[in-house]
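Q: Got a minute? One more chain.
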Amino acid sequence: MSKRILVVMGLLVGLCIVPMASAYDFGDMAFLTAPIDNAGLVLNPEGRGDLLLFPYYDVRTIDFGAGARDQKTLFVIINPNIGGVTHQGVAAKIRFREWDKSVEVFDVDIWLSDDDVWVGQLDRNPATNLCRITSPDYVITDFSATQFTVTKPLATGFDFLTSNITFTLPSGWTKEQMTQLGYFEVIGEERTETKVTTADPTKVNRNPANVLVFPDVLAPLDCPNVLMGQAVIVRVADGVAAGYNAIAIANFSRLNASLFVKPGDLAPTLANAQDGLQQLEFQLSKKYMMDAFSIENSIAGKASFIINFPTKHFHYDHTTRNILASIWNPFRGAKENDGEQIDLTIFDRDEHLTRPSQFWSPPKTLLLPYELNVCGIYFGTGNSIRGRDNVAFDTGTFDSGWVKVGFLTQFANAQNGVVPADVFAYFSDDLFAAYRGLPALGLQFQEYSNGNVGGVYGDMNDAWYQVDWSFTPIVGIP
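A: Always. Here it is, folded:
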């Protein structure tokens, strides 16, 4: 049985309502012992969580025909003192991945005090052609059982690394350029004391003695659902600043245990989700994604549909790039760049539609081959990419309207006839049996010019989407 997201959410809210003296929000539920025990990993519509996903960064030099323009990506991570547990600092892992195969190009453990904001700038270092990160804020550089050492080594900038890029590069790309486009994640690792110690401003106590927790213990604790984030793509020469809010996952970790290992350690990753990678993919799953566009010549319109598969690399061997045999794998390309088949339908503003896959005889299979697909939307019958894009969607003669992408992969846990506990759970109820589609994140990037003032304008928004979750037969639910 399939339901649109609003119907599903409405049903879930109804199931979770029980008589109580006070109400709780998604951000509070990680700390409850009653009435809902161990609230599960969930995509939080409030925008707060202990995992933040940023689907897109871009510091490439872009040329749309008016000359090369440098780009930067600015981002903020916020630790607001609102709701839930108060008065805590937060240690978090921030990790950047390149666009093709999600190879890590930089990671660092950062620290935010209470009510703090951690700011970062990504740009292209002209001396090395590598993506460079600059931040005036704290990084964890050492630790003991009771304290973190925090310093500010990124204040003068630090280049991303290419040592992990050992695969055959896409045509026309260098290793340095591979670092200039990608996506990143922020995983909350541990809560700490609210401020650096007065005795030593480079030390942070790891045991937050002044924090009330459930249960009340004094030990390294998991990060509460307080992190928020935003990123902005800036192209100063064109006057473009297009931003988006990070996708927030609540209860990524929820058992009052630290995820921190040591500075520079590969852990944690998205695979360390408390309820398993499958539950995270269930929460991120989409059957359809939709995006509006305008590429009208009169306004010099440019549009891209950005589709990110942030968990795909976990399903492929990092040496051979072969798909890993697993019943829980929603991806179906035999090789990592074989691509995921999509059904593409494009509508114009007068309700006409076209299916670009039918432009050819025999019909052409449309594939998204990368883990970050920047899909440029062009009218005409050409198929070449340009500007910021690595995939092209042709609209025929349509110059404005909307795009619908259907993920044709069908994934059901009935492949082995066993339903592991909580794999498709929501607040500890085994409500769903399967999802159809792919775990994906989507953004729409629209630009246009105003000839009267000579200005270029850009905006970025979350793409619309529909989920397809199948119910588990449960007594009492029709």
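A: Residues 1-22, 32-37, 414-421, 474-478 have pLDDT under 50 and may be disordered.
Q: Perfect, thanks.
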